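User: I'm writing a tutorial on reading structure tokens. Could you give me a worked example: one chain, its sequence, then its tokens, then a sentence or two explaining what the tokens reveal?
Assistant: Sure. Here is the example chain.
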Amino acid sequence: MRATAQQIVKKHLTEPNDVTARTYYSLHGNRETDDKFGKQYWPGLTGDLTGTTLVDFDASDCWIDEVDFSRARFTGQITNFSGTYFSASPKFDQAKFTIRADFSHCYFNSGASFQHTLFAAGASFREAYFTGPFSHVGVHDSAMDTTGLRNY
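And here are its predicted structure tokens:
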């Protein structure tokens, strides 16, 4: 996915600073009629990025509903999901991260699937919060920093 397209995705998945978590659900079905929050933020988006190559992907501090990154390839200098809120269970099955991946301070509302995912340069899940299963079969635990990870 080209850098410009990635920037557009980030722009529309980044929650405006004045919108709090409790207003997200009131916006979810009402984004077309509620101008005070602007049209830039598009809650409720889903995405299928299966098999996509993502270079320097930055989805930090985004709100993402459903997304499938299965077999995606993350390359470049950075892959950043820090502070991201996943309202559904994202899939990263068989994804390949050739660079360090940052999932610190993420909130996985319905868990996440990282089955047989390759973290060639490691991954940080520091202070990540899971309210569903954290499926990581086939991933070497030594590749993941899970300090402070909470799974409920």
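What the tokens reveal: The chain has one domain: 3-15+46-151. The CA atoms of residues 58 and 80 lie 5 Å apart.
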